[in-house]
Write a structure and sequence with these properties.
alpha+beta, two-stranded antiparallel ribbon, two-stranded antiparallel sheet, DUF7836
Length: about 60
């Protein structure tokens, strides 16, 4: 069985990665880019609206 993941994209440094939604906090929490340490709401790191919906449903 494939594990669901969401795609994240840092709005500052453009780092692109994937993470299981269960490993992430709620979309409104502050999140820090592992590459440049930019701090924004987690929802701002979601690559697409579909990723955000997946996080809301499974996170």
């Amino acid at each position: 069985m494939d594990e669901t993941s969401v795609s994240l994209l840092c709005p500052e440094c453009a780092k692109n990665w994937q993470s299981p939604p269960g490993d992430l906090d709620a979309p409104a929490t502050m999140f820090h880019c592992p590459n440049c340490h930019a701090s924004r709401r987690l929802s701002e790191f979601m690559r697409t609206d579909r990723d955000l919906q997946t996080l809301k449903q499974l996170g």
